[in-house]
Amino acid sequence: MLEFVKAGGWLMFPIIACSIIALGIVAERFWSLRRSKIIPQHLVATVWHWIKEGQLDQAKVQAISTESALGKILATGIMNSQSDRARMKESIEEVGRQVVHGMDRFLNTLGTIAAISPLLGLLGTVVGMIKVFAAITIVGVGNPGELAGGISQALTTTAAGLTVAIIAYMFHRYFRGRVDELVIEMEQQAIKLVDVMHSKNVQMQGSSK
User: What is the pLDDT of residues 14-34, one digit of tens each?
Assistant: First the structure.
């Protein structure tokens, strides 16, 4: 491995740095975008049970808000439960945009790494070929040893840059798809709560007349 890095020259260091950052982002996103952390199972059913039994107090709403992304959205809907349906949806959408922004964290950086890694490899190729032509100018083509260094740098940096870019791009697309999937599911869960709470409010208003 050390010989591989040496063969690529100084441009291997930014490529290696990109790979380390990309691996860190991938590990962090796998941990942060766990379904159990974003959308806890049976959360909506639990909240609705508390509402029906009159057990939903401010402390529970606060706990729901801090435990998960879906909980934060549901807590917003609960706090605006006395408003009309349109206002409830609007407040949920506002918080939902903040939640999605948090779920997209570091993905732009991962996409940037996917974009610049092959360019770093290409730059290494150019630098390597410059060395080759410089060697040809000095010693001609009769000494392969003088040419090998530049060719080796060109091929090594290109391979390293493309490898990092492919992996980073693959995970960038995967996490984008995962965020979209989780967002759609959160929207469905939130709409369920809005509908049942709105129906309850309508029934209470009808019975009070």
Answer: 999 999 999 999 999 999 999
The separation between the first and the last C-alpha atoms of the chain, rounded to the nearest angstrom, is 79
Q: DSSP letters of 80-131?
A: TTTS-HHHHHHHHHHHHHHHHHHHTTTHHHHHHHHHHHHHHHHHHHHHHHHH
The whole-angstrom separation of Cα 101 and Cα 152 is 43
Tens-digit pLDDT profile for residues 189-203: 888 877 777 666 555
Q: Which amino acid is residue 4, in one-letter code?
A: F
Q: Is 60 exposed, middle or buried (0-12, 13-18, 19+ CB in 10 A)?
A: middle
| 129-146 pLDDT tens trace | 877 777 667 666 555 665
Per-position DSSP letters for 168-205, written without gaps between them: HHHHHHHHHHHHHHHHHHHHHHHHHHHHHHHHHHHHHH
Whether 164 and 113 have beta carbons less than 8 Å apart is answered as: yes
